[in-house]
Amino acid sequence: MTLRRIWHHERLPENERPQHSFLKRAGIPEADELGRSVVIHSTRHTFASQLGRAGVGLVQAQRLLGHSTPELTAQVYTRLGIDDLRAAVERLQPVPRRRAKLGA
Description:
By secondary structure, the chain is mainly α. The chain folds into two domains: about 1-40, no CATH class; about 40-85. The chain has five helices and no strands. The protein has helices at about 20-25, 40-55, 60-65, 70-75, 80-90.
């Protein structure tokens, strides 16, 4: 089998699809109703993003994904949207307000 990039619209013969057995065991169809096929590598991005949303540390995520550096995990694989950022801020404890000094 020659290695080549599999685009979402490309269909390879079954014997050239190494992800076929993984998808079958997971119960995931190889293509949707529009004929778009799964690119197994994209699941790594999803996994990395889910780890980030779950609050898993960057070094832990890096090791789970088998990356060489945490920067690779953070800059290339982890995708966090505005809702993820908002949720992170909402988890912060409120800052206590200072009491005004009497007689000042």
